Sequence to fold (157 residues):
Amino acid sequence: MIDPFNIQTGLYTIGAVLLMSQPAPADLALTGDLRVAVEGLPNRQGGVCLKIFSGRQGFPSENINVVDQACVAIDAIPLTVTFNDLAFGNYAIALYHDSNGDGQFNRGAFGIPTEGFGFSNNPAIRMGPAEFEEAMFLWAGAKAPITIQIQYSPWQL
Fold:
């Protein structure tokens, strides 16, 4: 039988009650507000469209593995976009400057982009878009924004 007046037994009982009243790790809300800063916009024409991907499949242009997306007007340069309550995890961001406001990432001859674009981690662009692994980052609630430098072809500006 437990003696409630025994200090050692009483402390164990209090500790057990406190532990049972805490939420289980699965109940914890591991989310945060992810801020994305877009730098290098030459003007306020059109808007910027962003997609956050949780996996390689579909990156960077299809909607497979897209966990959040937004197209926003350019109200300031540099532009900051906030994604609220994003679950912690590994992600990659792809974005483009929709300079003509048609809601599409426009390309010219041979598929060469006619609008600015960018990826998280700002990987060097060679032939074709960045790979998911090049743009992937761990989101764990950092206060500083993810900064993406938008890129343009020399003949676009």
About this structure: The chain has two helices and eight strands. The chain has one domain: 26-149. The helical segments are 7-21, 132-135. The first strand starts at residue 31 and ends at 39.
